[in-house]
């Protein structure tokens, strides 16, 4: 019998496309479902991947995918990710990130597909009570984006109880970097993330970087985050699939390095890697930013056998810079 395929929703997005490439390199059979609202056709590089253009909230499209292909597992990325926008337009986030995946889950239930890997987020924890964050930390998001993902995590647990779905919820910290060969990388519209924004201030696409707040209770007054390389994230999805396909139990795991890096340290790393002076402006705090978010990644190591390969933020900056200067110069065709 032919090997069942893995359905990757949102496989043309930033983390989705890196994961897709990793899974393709492992020789896995892959089907992508992407509506290309934020995803990029050009980010799907490997031949032999079936690409279905459509929305995971469209019952007809999803049913067609499951009837035309034997789907053995789903890796679900497709989601909106802009925290500020989620505060301004919560329904957009609950619709796309929480409600539409129900269509996918219903198709999985109908077709007896019981393995699900979720692209989740550290935003499910909200304001940390203690650092580093462990998975047993209270789950109290401070924005609709975090809630939209946490609700989906809960839905997966309930489906586990009801019909035996097994899931791994991967709670990413700050995804960064690129494939390293200049072919795929981070290209969000609008770009809100720190590392690409600092680099855009060097390529001339932005005139400067504004540091959001210098009066936090941290050693240099700027926010501390745990930056994790996108290729390390990609590898974690493959290990999560292996865990579940090998009969493993449902689990939620943090994906981070365990190393906290401040905004000022990111700017220093950019200057060191590029040899260029970053034009910086010091501004007000951005609403909703916790002072520190750092993962305790030990559960992912214990259960999935996963550990970050790149832990020095200069490596993340270097690979993001490669993408900014590569053949696509940091942008897919619009
Ligand atoms: N920052 C600046 N200037 C900028 C952009 C960001 O100073 O122009 C600062 C932010 O205030 C924050 C840090 O850089 O302190 C990192 O900000 P990002 O926007 O890059 O990332 P966040 O930590 O806010 O968000 C990330 C993901 C979210 C996720 C969140 C918590 O992008 O999807 O982590 O897990 F919800």
Description:
- By secondary structure, the chain is an alpha/beta fold.
- The chain has a domain at 5-176 and 228-255: Rossmann fold, CATH 3.40.50.
- 38% of the residues lie in helices and 17% in strands.
- The chain contains 10 helices and 13 strands.
- It has helices spanning 14-25, 59-68, 83-88, 90-111, 144-163, 194-203, 230-245, 263-274, 298-304, 313-325; strands at residues 5-9, 30-34, 50-53, 71-76, 115-121, 166-172, 174-176, 209-212, 224-225, 227-229, 251-255, 261-262, 280-283.
- The strands form 4 sheets. Strands 3-2-1-4-5-6-11 form a 7-stranded parallel β-sheet, with helices on both faces. It has a two-stranded parallel sheet with strand order 7-10. Strands 8-13 form a two-stranded parallel ribbon.
- α2 runs parallel beside α4, α4 packs parallel to α5 (144-163) and α8 packs across α10.
- The longest helix has 22 residues, at 90-111.
- The radius of gyration is 19 Å and the shape is globular.
- It starts with a strand and ends in a 9-residue tail after the last helix.
- The model has no long low-confidence stretch (mean pLDDT 97).
- Uridine-5'-diphosphate-4-deoxy-4-fluoro-alpha-D-galactose (UFG) binds next to α6 and β8.
Topology:
Elements: E1 5-9, H1 14-25, E2 30-34, E3 50-53, H2 59-68, E4 71-76, H3 83-88, H4 90-111, E5 115-121, H5 144-163, E6 166-172, E7 174-176, H6 194-203, E8 209-212, E9 224-225, E10 227-229, H7 230-245, E11 251-255, E12 261-262, H8 263-274, E13 280-283, H9 298-304, H10 313-325
Parallel strand pairs: 1-2, 1-4, 2-3, 4-5, 5-6, 6-11, 7-10, 8-13
Antiparallel strand pairs: 9-12
Helix pairs in contact: 1-7, 2-4, 4-5, 6-8, 6-10, 8-10
Uridine-5'-diphosphate-4-deoxy-4-fluoro-alpha-D-galactose is lined by residues 81, 83, 121-123, 145, 173-174, 192-194, 197, 209-212, 223, 225, 263, 286, 289, 293.
């Amino acid at each position: 019998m032919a090997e069942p395929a893995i359905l990757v929703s949102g496989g043309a997005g930033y983390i989705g496309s890196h994961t897709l490439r990793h899974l393709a390199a492992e020789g896995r059979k892959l089907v992508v479902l992407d509506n290309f609202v934020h995803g990029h056709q050009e980010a799907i590089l490997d031949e032999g991947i079936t690409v279905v253009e459509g929305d995971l909230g469209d019952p007809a499209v999803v049913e067609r995918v499951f009837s035309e292909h034997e789907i053995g597992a789903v890796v679900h990325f497709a989601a909106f990710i802009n925290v500020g926008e989620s505060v301004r337009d919560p329904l957009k986030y609950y619709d796309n990130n929480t409600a539409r995946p129900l269509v996918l889950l219903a198709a999985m239930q109908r077709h007896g597909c019981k393995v699900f890997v979720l692209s989740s987020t550290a935003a499910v924890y909200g304001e940390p009570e203690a650092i580093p964050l462990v998975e047993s930390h209270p789950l109290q998001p401070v924005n609709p984006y975090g809630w939209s993902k946490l609700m989906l995590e809960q839905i997966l647990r309930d489906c586990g109880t009801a019909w035996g779905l097994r899931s791994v919820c991967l709670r990413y910290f700050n995804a960064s970097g690129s494939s390293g060969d200049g072919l795929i990388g981070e290209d969000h519209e609008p770009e809100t993330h720190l590392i690409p924004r600092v680099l855009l201030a060097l390529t001339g696409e932005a005139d400067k970087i504004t540091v959001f707040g210098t009066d936090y209770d941290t050693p240099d007054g700027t926010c501390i985050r745990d930056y994790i390389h996108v290729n390390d994230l990609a590898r974690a999805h493959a290990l999560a699939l292996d865990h579940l396909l090998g009969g493993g139990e449902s689990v939620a795991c943090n994906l981070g390095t365990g190393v906290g890096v401040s905004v000022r340290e990111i700017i220093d790393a950019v200057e060191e890697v590029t040899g260029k002076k970053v034009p910086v402006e010091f501004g007000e705090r951005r609403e909703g930013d916790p002072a520190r978010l750092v993962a305790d990644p030990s559960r992912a190591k214990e259960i999935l056998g996963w550990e970050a390969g790149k832990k020095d933020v200069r490596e993340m900056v270097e690979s993001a810079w490669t993408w900014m200067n590569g053949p696509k110069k940091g942008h897919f065709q619009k």
